[in-house]
């Protein structure tokens, strides 16, 4: 890559050019984002994961731009139309849109009106008219009347000339730049219902006659309107005022003189706008706004997913998991401390069987037999009834009873992963196992499920699926490597996301472990087939080996730095174990004495932090959460009730909260706090425990409105308004019905 590209990236990200070039070199050498940000701080100048990933993505964008530039230059060269001036402009183009504008006149085209006109020999007439000089237009046009060329009249000749001029105007690079800016800065999204579909499209009611500026339309509304259009309920336009657009075109193209040639060009300009430039710009704007909306939605999804993956784990304890139900009963499994399936059964404490005594006896027996320390109950159908039943059994006080979000458990139970783990078990047993393991370690279990199925996204099925997958893969990898992985107990799916591994090496590790027993050291990992030095370098620091002879194997200290820690210990006349267990000894280490050409203070500080708490889990400590007793169904909700709840999903327009009634309620961003809120993510996080007030209950529409304000029914808060209401077009107020639509479309959690 050209050094200018690295300079550009550095300016965009606010970092030094050397940081960009060195990071790009590491990435090109096969290093992963987690590895670079954690173990190559001296090389990158301590760039974090976000910065490293941004450099990676921007480098790829610019390389794609260069690849396209080379293809365009080659194409024009082959046409023998590449002039030094054009080549200079193409080489100077900094965006794909400018590059494509320059290529447009030379791009192979399908047969157009201008093509037909050229075949009729009308290009000289078009050139003379486009010069906009005064001449006898009628007489000039008459010269092109030809039976052979199928030009029957002067007007037909002029029409052909205008078709050619319209194409020239459309290919004007300066004009396209101006029009692109106009469409984005002054254009409007205008949405209308398709006549006759009013009832069928009721969920899009607020978009039946809706308009707002393109530049300020939030991502969720852009995606909502596009979905309505795709489902053939809405007609969507995205253009500026036509008079303004044509005015800009005329000012750019027309000469000041007033003559018949100018009038012909004026007609060609109007034709160009309606037939060529408007559709072209509208397509560009739609792609631009879609990409922008996708990026915002993907960012929301990725952050929600991160918070869900990093939810507090219960840890290695005996767990009973119950997948609740009515008619089909409650599938009940018991799991050992490592998540191994010990037993499975079915109990029927709820309607219609209501075998409470038998079910109670089974639960008590299993709790005692398997030394159960926690009971996880899925939050689906019959969850609250099952929770009440379990809590009524008088189990030992040390047995935790808690609800677990089972979103995605059914996806797991029908997956190849579940069939591989439990080939002889039915779907319900697998689902119950997933619920229990999700309590023990959310990260280890959720990596087995397609991230899109977890239910924390915003229009995840409407966004660019490739970009979504890349972002979610980045997020999962970041979380897995941030927490660390115990190599002797991790599943193949979890190992897959470890830096430098992937599916093949992950399977090889599991196979080696099954054949040879637990790994006794990190160094033994090198014996895994096809796991070479590069893969070991990338993965080793994120893999943990408990009870190894070298205590550093259970830490995040990379093996390449073991000798450094050993030197620290030796200099103090102690062992590595002594150094790791004695705060007094660690306090005597003078870090600057160990700085070298390859190791600086950032790495030394990381090492000292790690050996003080080797293998520490960065996730929060698990806390039991209980819903309000007696509130089990939407029908139990009353306006004004204050209830405990858990944040399940965050969008740009608010947060969804589970209050234990099988359906999430929505806290609109205007109800998230007593102050103005522009981004819900600044106030709440997924899995956060909150107290909410019921503001609205609409059973028929399955809609629950909630508030987190201290006095939601009191006076409106002073200060900046969160929304601007107006009767006119261009309004920016969130459509009321839109919230209900999002509740239905985003969550799909109606149990």
UniProtKB/TrEMBL annotation:
Residue stretches of biased makeup (Basic and acidic residues): 720-736
Question: What is the protein name given in its UniProt record?
Answer: S1 motif domain-containing protein
Q: Does the keyword Nucleotidyltransferase apply?
A: no
- Keyword set, alphabetical order: Coiled coil
Task: Please give the biological process terms from Gene Ontology that the record holds.
Answer: nucleobase-containing compound metabolic process; translation
Q: Which Pfam families match?
A: HHH_3, HHH_9, S1, Tex_central_region, Tex_N, Tex_YqgF
Q: Name one GO cellular component term.
A: cytoplasm
List the residue ranges forming a coiled coil, or say none.
158-185
The domain of life for this entry's organism is: Bacteria
Region Disordered: start-end pairs? 709-738
What organism does the UniProt record list as the source? Answer: Mongoliibacter ruber
CDD domains associated with the record: S1_Tex
Gene3D superfamilies referenced in this protein's UniProt entry, alphabetically: Nucleic acid-binding proteins (2.40.50.140), RuvA domain 2-like (1.10.10.650), Tex N-terminal region-like (1.10.3500.10), Tex RuvX-like domain-like (1.10.150.310), YqgF/RNase H-like domain (3.30.420.140)
For this UniProt entry, the molecular function terms from Gene Ontology, in alphabetical order, are:
mRNA binding; structural constituent of ribosome
Q: Domain (S1 motif): give its ranges.
A: 640-709
InterPro entries tied to this protein: HHH_9 (IPR041692), NA-bd_OB-fold (IPR012340), Ribos_protein_bS1-like (IPR050437), RNaseH-like_sf (IPR012337), RuvA_2-like (IPR010994), S1_domain (IPR003029), S1_Tex (IPR044146), Tex-like_central_region (IPR055179)
